[in-house]
Amino acid sequence: MASSIENNNEKLTLKSSDGEEFLVEKHVALQSTLLQNMLDSDCSSADVIPLPKIDARTLALVLGYCKKHADASSSKQGELNSFDSEFLKDMDMGALFNLVLAANFMEIKGLLDIAAQKIADTIKDKPHQEVREIFHVENDYTPEEEAAVREENRWAFEGFP
Amino acid sequence: MSLTMMSRKSKFKYFEPTAVDRISECPDSVLVHILSRLEETEDAVRTQVLSKRWRFLWTFLPSLLFRYNAYDDYGGEGEGEDFRVARNTEFVTFVEKTLFSSDCKLKKFGVEFEYYPRFTSNVDLWTRFAAGKGVEELSIQLWPDDTEYELPQLLYDNSWFKELRFSHCRVIPGGNVAWYSLKKLSIGHVKFSNDVIERILAGSPVLEILELHNFEGFSRLSVTNSCVKKLILSEFLNIWDDSGLEISAPYLLSLEMSGRLGKNCRLTNVSSLVDAVFNCDFMCYADDRANDYERIQNIVVVFLASLLHVKNLTLGTWAIQVLSIMEAKGLSSPLLNCKCLTLDMEIDKYVLPGIANVLKSTPNVETLIMTWSLYGWRLYGIESMVLLNYNEEQYWTSQKWTYKCLTLHLKNVTISSRLMNLMMYHRDSNFFSFIQFLLRNARVLQKMVISTPSDDRLKKYFEAAKKLLSFPRSSPDAAVIFC
């Protein structure tokens, strides 16, 4: 608690790809290894830190996650777990990928893991045709190539038409 | 709210880039990270058919996990041995191909299947390959037909391993064991001598968690490594050996014992222990249970006496049943210092006197947790249960004893949803009368938290909840919470 009061006046400004600025407490920003490294290397907190690949909506979500995790004490793991699952509930695939990309860029391991897990859970046990649709992947195999790839690992495709 | 969002534009546009753009922008490493969250490797391998970009992504997976059980296959067909051998052979081919296609440093390799001696050279090759790749977590869980797989000698000298899990493997190190980075070791369905377990412990200087299940052969477990914090034991198979198992672990913080642990087990030095789960039982002679009772009672008393200092204590059905018989004979449990007591059992007439016995002997208990896991469901000999022929309806109301823990310390009671499920199913009046007794006598109780059963017994549950709420409470602050 003491540290968060101490750091209260220390804030930094993050700028999203679409030009929104977010004022963030330092202890919240430290959830991101990227920002931590920038602060450690004497990057002035007066500067505005641009995050060119993260839009405002995603950044607001990311910071919401960081704030919750920065403020919760480690003894409240159960509470954090339920926050995490609630946090991603009903999120569509586009938003999830935005989060994964942001977490990957900002190096927020916990967020990267839960968002990646959510995506993995969505495609688990689904036939590849459906996964293609979910991921908007365009099939660039010829039918012959596709059949050959399937044949190569027949075991994995058992039960999947 | 300290997170301030300063919006320079009056409205920001949500979600311009489509999912299509985002996924094509995703670096391969992120896609591999997503694939690595899939539980089984074959789910990840299947994504190779999505598009050419996905063709080889799975070869960068840091962990490869394979599991196959022919019995789950095609309904009843799994019964035939020829069928199972053929299917397991296909599985082995798949594992091999996938493993050898791996194109990165492997962190984790795990395999679980029905093992036949014809697969020896395959499994040897995999473990050799995985070890060569610097695997940190290795799990080999086999279901043998008759002959068990023997771990290759090269595995005993490996400083990459952090976590090892073996089941139905013969563990016979020829020389010293050198697992200098190993943190967690789980071995099951194994027989080894005192000498082997000693060499394993001597060669694992940073080991933190040791789990042994369905084990036999040795009689002494001396854990002197100061890093080992947790020991989990279940099913010690030396059932004819009178001396049983002797455990000495002076630095151990947590001990969990479940299942049948042979004929006897003694804790000679567990002076640092904070958490203990005594949810095991011991073999007694089926044909002479009445006479064997003294021996059993002695084991329980000695066992509890070595857990006097433990802060968080869990007792299972079997131990409590023995305490019930002791209570009927007017014998009390050793005085225990625990602050948090967990009763892992169904609340029936065979455990009520045992619960009374333990409440008398735990004057400092502040938290009482009641739960039910299947492990503890063991009955002590029926013969001695004759002693427990009493009127259970009036058991708690007839109690004249003043329980120190209830008068002075008990603040929290938690009842798990598993136990609630069971109690709703049986509509067990013993359970309700015990709760009624607690509410009436716990003078400083602050909170009783009752978890909702997880299935369709909600209607009964609401009836029960109404009943529970109507019970008189002696503590003015007691809140009964349903969650």
From TrEMBL, chain A:
SKP1 component dimerisation domain location: 109-156
Limits of the SKP1 component POZ domain: 11-70
UniProt superkingdom: Eukaryota
Keyword Ribonucleoprotein in record: no
Alphabetical UniProt keywords: Ubl conjugation pathway
InterPro entries: SKP1 (IPR016897), SKP1-like (IPR001232), SKP1-like_dim_sf (IPR036296), SKP1/BTB/POZ_sf (IPR011333), Skp1_comp_dimer (IPR016072), Skp1_comp_POZ (IPR016073)
A single GO BP: jasmonic acid mediated signaling pathway
Family matches, as PANTHER family: SKP1
Family membership noted in the UniProt record: Belongs to the SKP1 family.
Function: Involved in ubiquitination and subsequent proteasomal degradation of target proteins. Together with CUL1, RBX1 and a F-box protein, it forms a SCF E3 ubiquitin ligase complex. The functional specificity of this complex depends on the type of F-box protein. In the SCF complex, it serves as an adapter that links the F-box protein to CUL1.
Protein's UniProt name: SKP1-like protein
Organism: Rhododendron griersonianum
UniProtKB/TrEMBL annotation, chain B:
CDD domains (alphabetical): F-box_AtFBL13-like
SUPFAM superfamilies per record: F-box domain (SSF81383), RNI-like (SSF52047)
All residue ranges annotated as the FBD domain in the record: 404-483
Pfam families: F-box, FBD, LRR_At1g61320_AtMIF1
Superkingdom of origin: Eukaryota
Protein name: FBD domain-containing protein
Origin species: Rhododendron griersonianum
